[in-house]
Structure formats: structure tokens, C-alpha cells
UniProtKB/TrEMBL annotation:
One of its GO terms (molecular function) is ATP binding. It comes from the Archaea. The keyword Iron does not apply. This is ABC transporter ATP-binding protein. It holds the Pfam family ABC_tran. It comes from Methanosarcina flavescens. Residues 22-246 form the ABC transporter domain. The keyword Transmembrane helix does not apply. Belongs to the ABC transporter superfamily.
Length: 416
């Protein structure tokens, strides 16, 4: 028998259609039946999870992941279909619910543990371990209101894992907390899995899903797009390509912020916050292409990527230089190059065209990266300079830490 069985599951939300703001509207409305709009949040979902198995659930924002988890946790009812869980569920959905800001850390652990069904005697014997795991031994008598949200989640997680779980449902719980704490949590979860605990793991952190989940379910607008081997399903998510949403994301990434958020400068105007130059040549669009030749804004680490820069030269321009600069999301400058540095001499341009920068292997490990694209004269006078206007995401495939992969290997020689 499977531990979790989900069969032809549908969830339809009813959203009240009309808002009654005034007394008159309420009086008139009282005689009319309320009007509802329906929203199909989950549409025919089918899967099973076995003992000791970890299922990942991934998908865009609003694709139905949390709704699915809440139905499995019995917090929401399905509209149609069957959901059966044959073991005791420990939901880590809203960690820390019930925490009291005026209680100290240890008082909160005691109360929270009671809510989670742990006996008082048991928690007294485990209190030190809980605080140590959370890295909060020094704060045992500090009131919770003085804790950061990360400290609170660490405390809640550390308490909740004491419950001797059989089925763990987790929604983004690892999102708060530093890398070290995340790794500690994953180690505990791995141990649980070895002991036969079944885990359902909703996360935007595809690296954690890749490391941890045996199989993964991909949702898109409430529909089950893929279910199977985690690596294959994440690749489908990253390179699935032609889903409407990724098209939208691609389009959004091509609209320079300068056009969407600030007015474009008049011809010849300089020094605008995110875009400047005399516009004798304009960058009209920038596109990213993945290894399948599809437009994309998500790439697996170590995969190839092509950046295509479209321009329009409003007059004949001799010897233009095109360049890019790469930044972390926080704005750290990571890399920059241009056609001149790479010995590409462009004699002249006129009218519209494009040029490509081929990256053979994305060296970044994980995260969102910002790109500046510019066209300028050889002595750096900008025709058009779009500062950090484009972005793309890198999905991790390795467990190495940091920003970049460094080619390296360990050697150890046994001394006899
Ligand atoms: N109680 C509700 N009433 C109406 N609509 C709801 C309700 N709960 C969720 N929804 C809608 O259902 C859809 C799925 O939401 P859900 O929170 O499950 O998505 P998600 O994949 O977990 O998103 P995220 O990654 O942003 O957390 C969303 O469009 C959301 O607005």
C-alpha cells in the first residue's frame, strides 16, 4: 500500500464576484443570490508516494503547490477526487504558528511542542538539543519578540522535527535560514527518509529539490505537467520552453526597465538612471537562448547559453563596440567583456541587425543574475547603455557552494 495516494484530485475555489460597498448596494444585493466566479486551482492531479520516499512539488508562483499540500494535510477539502494518507501527518506548513512573542525561547518550545503532540516530559529531555540544533542556546531566556524571523523559523523547525514524524509535509520551510542551517535540516530529513519517513517537499529552491527528492511533480496553472525522476522534471521546468508563462517571462525580460518604469529619454539626453547614451545606435532588445535553441530566462548551471543583442543604427556608425557586464542580484560586478576585447572588429553598422555572444558553459552555480548591455565608441562614449536591465536565473546542478564553479580536484596520497 502507498503511504499517500492522490487520485483525480480537483480543487475549485469560489471567489465572490461582486463587492458591496455601500448600504444601498448591500440592501439591493441582499435580494439577489450571491454571484461567484470559480477558479480551478488544481485540475486532475494523480500521484502516489511510498514509505521513505521524498516527493518534490515545483512550479511557478500560483501553480497550486500550497493548495495541494494543504489538501494532503487535510486543511482544505478537495472539490473532487480522492486523497488518502495512511500514516500520521506532521505538517510543517506554517511553522511557528502559536509562538508567543512575550514568551522566552524555551517557553515557546514547550508550548509549541505540546501543540505538536509531544509530551511535556519528552520535551524537557530534548530542550537542550532543540536549542542547540537551532543555534540558539545563548538565547534560551530571550523573549521571542527580540528574535529575527530566521531565528524563529529555526526554533520552530528544531522543535517540529522532534515529533517522531511518519509523513512530513513541508512548504518552503528551508527558504528562511542560512546555508549551514539548510544543510543541517536536509541532513535530518535524509536521516528521516532512511528511517522510512515519507516526505512531501514544496520548494522554489530547485537545488534542494534536486539534492533531496526521489521524484518530483511539476505543476503549471493547476495542471500536472510532469511527474517522475527529479532531474528530468527539473530539466522540463527549466527548458520546458513553450509554456505561456515562460514566454511571458521571456518577454518581460526583454522589455528594458527604462521603458516600463521610467520615461525614455529624449534623443541626445544623457545620464538617466538606468539608460544613457546619445542613441545614434539603440539596443532594441536582448534575448537569451538555451541549449535547445529556445528563448529562455532559466538555465541549468554549466549549460551553454547564447545572448542575442538586437540594435538599430540610426545613421552609419563606424567601428562600434558592443559589450556586456554581468552582475549578481545584489549588484556585484562579476564579469564584463566587449567585442573589442574579444578582437571582433565591426567595420560599420547601419539600420537594424543583431549580434550574438555565445557562452559555452555557464560557470555560475545558482541564483538570479543581471546583465548590462551597451554599445559605445572605442573610447567608451555610449551610444546606448542599458544598465542591469536584463536578468536570467541559473538553476544549480551541483552542491558546491558560492557563486562560481572552479575547476578543481582533490588528491590524497596515503603515506606508508
Ligand atoms: N482560498 C483561496 N481562494 C481563492 N483562490 C485561492 C485560494 N487559495 C489559493 N488560491 C489561488 O489558487 C492558486 C494557487 O495558489 P497556491 O498558493 O496553491 O499556489 P503556489 O503554487 O503555492 O504559489 P506560490 O509559489 O506563490 O506559493 C492561486 O492563483 C491562488 O490565488
Amino acid at each position: 500500500m502507498h503511504t499517500i495516494e492522490v487520485e483525480h484530485l480537483h480543487k475549485i475555489f469560489k471567489i465572490p464576484h461582486e463587492k458591496r460597498n455601500t448600504v444601498f448596494e448591500s440592501l439591493v444585493g441582499a435580494f439577489r443570490p450571491p454571484q461567484y466566479e470559480t477558479f480551478h486551482a488544481l485540475n486532475d492531479i494523480n500521484f502516489t508516494v511510498d514509505e521513505g520516499e521524498a516527493l518534490g512539488i515545483i512550479g511557478e508562483n500560483g501553480s497550486g503547490k500550497s493548495t495541494l499540500l494543504k489538501i494532503i494535510a487535510n486543511i482544505l477539502r478537495p472539490t473532487r477526487g480522492r486523497v488518502e494518507v495512511h500514516k500520521k501527518i506532521t505538517p510543517f506548513l506554517e511553522l511557528g504558528v502559536g509562538f508567543q512573542p512575550n514568551f522566552t525561547a524555551s517557553e515557546n518550545v514547550r508550548t509549541y511542542a505540546t501543540i505538536m503532540g509531544i509530551s511535556k516530559r519528552e520535551i524537557e529531555s530534548k530542550l537542550d538539543d532543540v536549542l542547540e540544533f537551532a543555534g540558539l542556546e545563548k538565547f534560551r531566556d530571550t523573549k521571542l519578540k527580540n528574535f529575527s524571523s530566521g531565528m524563529q523559523v529555526r526554533l520552530a523547525f528544531s522543535t517540529a522535527i522532534q515529533t517522531d514524524p511518519e509523513v512530513l509535509l513541508m512548504d518552503e520551510v528551508l527558504a528562511v535560514g542560512d546555508m549551514e542551517f539548510q544543510q543541517k535540516c536536509l541532513d535530518v530529513l535524509n536521516q528521516y527518509r532512511k528511517e522510512g519517513v515519507t516526505i512531501v517537499f514544496v520548494s522554489h529552491d530547485l537545488g534542494a529539490v534536486r539534492r533531496f527528492c526521489d521524484k518530483t511533480l511539476l505543476l503549471h496553472k493547476g495542471v500536472q505537467v510532469a511527474l517522475g525522476d527529479t532531474g528530468d522534471v527539473i530539466d522540463k521546468y527549466v527548458y520546458g520552453g513553450s509554456t505561456e508563462e515562460s514566454e511571458e517571462a521571456v518577454e518581460a525580460s526583454q522589455v528594458p526597465l527604462a521603458e516600463t518604469e521610467t520615461e525614455l529619454p529624449e534623443e541626445g539626453e544623457h545620464n538617466e538612471a538606468n539608460r544613457w547614451g546619445n542613441r545614434k545606435v539603440e539596443i532594441t532588445s536582448v534575448e537569451f537562448y538555451d541549449k535547445f535553441g529556445n528563448k529562455n530566462t532559466r538555465f541549468n548551471s554549466f549549460d551553454p547559453m547564447k545572448i542575442r543583442i538586437y540594435y538599430k543604427a540610426n545613421q552609419k556608425i563606424a567601428d562600434p563596440v558592443f559589450g556586456i557586464a554581468l552582475y549578481s542580484e545584489k549588484g556585484d560586478h562579476l564579469f564584463g567583456t566587449n567585442t573589442e576585447l574579444k578582437n571582433l572588429i565591426i567595420d560599420h553598422i547601419e539600420g537594424s541587425g543583431h549580434l550574438d555572444l555565445q557562452i559555452e558553459r555557464i560557470p555560475m552555480l545558482n541564483g538570479r543574475f543581471l546583465l548590462t548591455v551597451a554599445v559605445h565608441t572605442r573610447d567608451q562614449k555610449p551610444y546606448d547603455w542599458l544598465d542591469k536591465q536584463y536578468s536570467f536565473d541559473v538553476i544549480p546542478v551541483s552542491r558546491n557552494a558560492g557563486v562560481f564553479e572552479v575547476d578543481c580536484s582533490w588528491k590524497y596520497e596515503l603515506k606508508v
